[in-house]
């Protein structure tokens, strides 16, 4: 066949049949997002040749770029930016779209002059360059990082319109570095040391206290992300990775680890990153991000048509593996088990899918995650029943997307 | 601590101890690569502030970039470019550094006008847009793609100097798309269909014949790579993914699938992509990439120092999972088992590490992969003993890096 353009016309009847067949796919048509997204960089859309087989293509390049036709973007808001999960596939977040949370901007760091000091309750205080750290035994791990403020607007509103707005403060990468335990062994951590202070080189000098016992076998001093060096906004050239723990404890631009016997009660762990309970007390040191899930498609701002719709989403738990995800189309009255995509790794986003047929009637789509500890993601009502609605952090309740009879999808609190 | 600069000085003794201690890491110091790499884009290195904590950082951005201090690049050579495995970590290849192989350049394709025709021995010939295909049930998979010409210079030379030159025609991504089986079911593939022609929209109209039976349950029509749409040089907006099969069969810029009863004997599968045997006959249809491994560090062009050296590399098999990797430091006389990094997925790069102590004497470093079928990666001598040295493709023998007494690492054929 020399001219596929002609063939396309010849088999147009097949195309119509595809669109009409009752067997599978007549249903879903996700419209352009109804919610405008910020476009920071105006970009010309190129004019592609009508028949690309008639024009020699471009030569290889040293460092590739995405197609100029693609425009998915993080949504910057002050010192954060949100990952566009409605546009993404699989579990790996492209590094260029990994969410951001800084406390005073992304520092410009020359890796040749960056150093990590390890001191306090150690036999041998030491300073390491990033090159020093790369010589130690290395470890890689695919893991999510979720800001403890992810879904904060779901506590009391105003509710986010899109899944980027409600769940954009989480992303997944393959991280590589040296195990914290290896570096502490090198420095000779003293037996009485039970806490560690981690400090960043940013102009907020972001600082958190980390209890050693639960993280000593999991923490990584990471220098790489998705194969290449960390991106600047992810802590280049060095960050702490505490798989499953709230994002801000994964100190970026890491310059100092101090070993001690008690938490330091730093600014960020006293004035921020505590959870105000209904009785006026504050929960402190809520490190673990509990089991959670969200449907990324269909999601807020999209529009579907009656018929087959594949429900797609992400599930994760800071306590280990996701063992089950269920989907409800009736606001939580009945649930059916979704399919988990391989790999389903501990403390990592797990992609789920669920084959659904939308009848055209109003529906409330929800997903619910169970992790390997048996913990089941709570409803919003149950979560607020225990925690009240004063909190900013650690919202992990079931998310509800309402499908209106016109197929439009919106965020609702049920 | 307010001034880590001062502390650094105060604990300099610790730094010296680190550099001298016999316990762990005195050995390895990989010097700058002795082999010059091509720099296609001259880039200014920025001047970073001496103390980044004193300068407010940069605000979030819609689509991030790597640090301007990082310069790892693909090595472009005509219609190929090579992944810099000596610079990479883990198993995910950054999309910007995924190897390239085009047959007449990267076409510029407007996704809105791109179509896939499925015809031939099907009940219902159909044309699909990429948007149509995204509505089908989706599947994601982390898998390597290896050009059958990867390591071609190892057959008869001149041998590549670096691992980028010898093994740069392979990369790993998370791919997402629709199962080929789903689309063929929609079109009603006829029972007599046993082969499928796949054709690209590039100006080579790259075309290969694919036997249906072995790939029907694995092939994916992929529209996404590492979470976002395929990169242009990886087939944007649509490619065929045949996990474990030689790269060129994973047709990029996919525009046509024709079902038939025999191979089409296209240009690329007759004049190219066959293997010339010693008796003058050519092996045809050698789809599977057999088990293989390579040490990425230390590797050609690097330099090490006596003491601890972590040997790092990649192993993979087109037939399934890697079950074992062994490392030899004496040119294959003795072997020891390396550690496999999780996840170790089928038809996917698996990262291995091996703790080694270099005594300062000449050494030949090798790795050897065994896959789940029990196949063991052959020596170069054994491979050439069977296949001769006329071949260009499907070199999967053990790779040898010679460590000279000065610590320099070079490629040798032993």
Describe the structure in your own words.
Two copies of one chain form a homodimer. With about 425 residues, the first copy, chain A, is α+β, with helices and mostly antiparallel strands. The first copy, chain A, has two domains: about 100-275, Oxidoreductase, molybdopterin-binding domain (Sulfite Oxidase, Chain A, domain 2); about 290-410, Immunoglobulin-like (Sandwich), CATH 2.60.40. Helix content of chain A is about 15%, strand content about 30%. Chain A is built from nine helices and 24 strands. Chain A has helices at about 5-10, 10-20, 130-135, 155, 165, 180-185, 210-215, 265-270, 380-385, and strands spanning about 75, 80, 100, 115-120, 125-130, 140-145, 170-180, 195-200, 205-210, 220-225, 230, 240, 255-260, 275, 280-285, 290-295, 305-315, 320-330, 335, 340, 350-360, 365-370, 400-405, 410. In chain A, the strands form six sheets. The first copy, chain A, has a five-stranded mixed sheet. In chain A, strands 6, 7, 10, 11 and 12 form a five-stranded antiparallel sheet that branches. The longest helix of chain A is centred in the N-terminal third of the chain and has 9 residues, at about 10-20. Chain A is globular, with a radius of gyration of 24 Å. The N and C termini of chain A lie far apart (about 55 Å).
């Amino acid at each position: 066949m020399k001219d596929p353009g002609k063939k396309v016309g010849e088999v147009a009847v097949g195309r119509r049949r595809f669109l009409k067949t009752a067997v599978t796919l007549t249903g879903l048509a996700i419209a352009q997002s109804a919610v405008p997204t910020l476009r920071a960089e105006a970009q010309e859309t190129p004019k592609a040749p009508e028949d690309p087989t008639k024009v020699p293509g471009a030569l290889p390049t040293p460092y590739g770029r995405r197609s100029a036709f693609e425009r998915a973007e993080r949504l910057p808001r002050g010192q954060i930016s949100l990952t566009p999960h409605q546009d993404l596939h699989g579990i790996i977040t492209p590094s260029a779209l990994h969410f951001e949370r800084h406390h005073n901007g992304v520092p410009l760091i020359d890796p040749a002059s960056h150093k990590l000091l390890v001191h306090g309750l150690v036999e041998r205080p030491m300073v390491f360059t990033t090159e020093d750290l790369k010589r130690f035994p290395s470890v890689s791990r695919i893991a999510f990082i979720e800001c403890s403020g992810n879904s904060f607007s779901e506590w009391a509103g105003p509710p986010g319109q899109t899944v980027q707005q409600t769940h954009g403060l989480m992303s997944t990468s393959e991280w590589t570095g040296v195990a914290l335990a290896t570096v502490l062994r090198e420095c000779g951590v003293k037996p009485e040391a039970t806490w560690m202070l981690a400090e960043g080189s940013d102009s907020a000098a972001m600082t958190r206290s980390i209890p050693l016992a639960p993280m000593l076998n999991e923490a990584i001093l990471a220098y790489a992300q998705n194969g290449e060096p960390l991106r600047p906004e992810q802590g280049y050239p060095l960050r702490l990775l505490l798989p499953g723990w709230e994002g801000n404890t994964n100190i970026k631009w890491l310059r100092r680890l101090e070993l001690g016997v008690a938490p330091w009660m730093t600014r960020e762990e006293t004035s921020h990153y505590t959870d105000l309970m209904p009785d006026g007390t504050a929960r402190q040191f809520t490190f673990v991000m509990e089991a959670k899930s969200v449907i990324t498609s269909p999601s807020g701002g999209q529009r579907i048509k009656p018929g087959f719709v594949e429900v797609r989403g992400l599930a994760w738990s800071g306590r280990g593996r996701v063992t089950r995800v269920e989907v409800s189309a009736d606001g939580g009255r009945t649930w059916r088990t979704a399919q988990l995509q391989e790999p389903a790794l501990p403390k990592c986003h797990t992609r789920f899918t669920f084959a659904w047929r939308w009848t055209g009637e109003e529906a409330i789509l929800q997903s619910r995650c169970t992790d390997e500890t048996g913990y089941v993601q709570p409803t919003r009502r149950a979560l607020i029943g225990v925690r009240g609605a004063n909190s900013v952090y650690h919202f992990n309740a079931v998310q509800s997307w309402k499908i209106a009879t016109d197929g439009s999808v919106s965020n609702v609190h049920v």
